[in-house]
């Protein structure tokens, strides 16, 4: 199994977000299109051999004190009952990013970690309808509800239209309150959103050059493991087993640096 190694960056409390990056000692390029400036040799490597900056719970920037509790939160009903004060504390804990999606993209982020849940109770009954009707039910969550998934994915789409050589990996790590019909509706929604930019699952991790030649810019992950029905080039979502995400479980930047060095060298 091929593994994609992702460098997750928490940019929540950085005073200044980077607008340029130095790929080589003498070569500083805009962070918004750093992939298009990579050396030819690097663009021919599998994505698993490129360090790709990403954000943890990328959509949590939009969580507010008034946001309702989400299904991923333990004891959420109890906390909701206890009132507004607890929501203030929860919003402090839930927000891991302060930059919106467009800012993250312009600053070079190319991997988006997301968790989604249903927010409207009537959505389950409406799954026989078109994905356009269902997509308003999908919300990003991290303890509390953030923005709608379709709104955030359209931001990514808008960015990619003007940056044709940038590639984004969208990783839906968890689905809350999803049944089988909702998962099918979600796959249709992903296809409708990214259309020709979407790279279908393949048994081999692509290179940037591969993706550019096919006009593909988005890889979406969503399966917990490789389903039996997966066939090369035939599936919308990539299995999450395609990605390797070791968890350091530390708040220390020094310990994190040591951990990553040990894992990836």
UniProtKB/TrEMBL annotation:
Keyword Signal on entry: yes
UniProt keyword Signal, yes or no: yes
Chain ranges of the Phosphatidylinositol-specific phospholipase C X domain: 41-222
Biological process annotations from GO: lipid metabolic process
Keywords from the named record: Signal
N-terminal signal peptide: 1-18
Database matches in InterPro entries: PI-PLC_domain, PLC-like_Pdiesterase_TIM-brl, PLipase_C_PInositol-sp_X_dom
MF terms in GO: phosphoric diester hydrolase activity
PANTHER family reported for this sequence: PTHR13593, SI:DKEY-266F7.9
This protein's name: PLCXc domain-containing protein
Organism: Mesocestoides corti
Lineage of the species this protein comes from: Eukaryota, Metazoa, Spiralia, Lophotrochozoa, Platyhelminthes
């Amino acid at each position: 199994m091929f593994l994609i190694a992702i460098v997750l960056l928490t940019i929540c409390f950085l005073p200044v977000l980077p607008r340029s990056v130095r790929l080589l000692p003498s070569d500083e390029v805009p962070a918004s299109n750093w992939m298009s400036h990579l050396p030819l040799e690097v663009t021919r490597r599998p994505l698993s051999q490129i360090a790709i900056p990403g954000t943890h719970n990328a959509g949590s920037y939009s969580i507010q004190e008034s946001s309702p509790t989400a299904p991923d939160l333990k004891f959420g009903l109890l906390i909701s009952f206890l009132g507004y004060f607890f929501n203030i504390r929860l919003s402090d804990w839930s927000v891991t990013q302060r930059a919106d999606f467009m800012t993250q993209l312009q600053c070079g982020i190319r991997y988006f970690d997301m968790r989604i849940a249903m927010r409207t109770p009537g959505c389950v009954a409406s799954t026989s309808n078109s994905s356009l009707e269902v997509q308003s039910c999908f919300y990003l969550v991290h303890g509390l509800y953030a923005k709608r998934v379709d709104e955030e994915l359209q931001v990514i789409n808008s960015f990619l239209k003007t940056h044709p050589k940038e590639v984004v990996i969208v990783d839906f790590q968890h689905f809350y309150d999803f049944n089988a019909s909702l998962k099918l509706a979600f796959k249709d929604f992903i296809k409708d959103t990214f259309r020709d930019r979407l790279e279908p699952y393949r048994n081999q991790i692509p290179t940037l050059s591969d993706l550019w030649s096919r006009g593909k810019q988005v890889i979406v992950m969503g399966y917990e493991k490789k389903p039996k029905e997966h066939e090369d080039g035939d599936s919308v979502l990539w299995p999450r087993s395609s990605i390797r995400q070791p968890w350091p479980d530390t708040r220390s930047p020094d310990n994190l640096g040591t951990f990553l060095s040990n894992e990836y060298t």
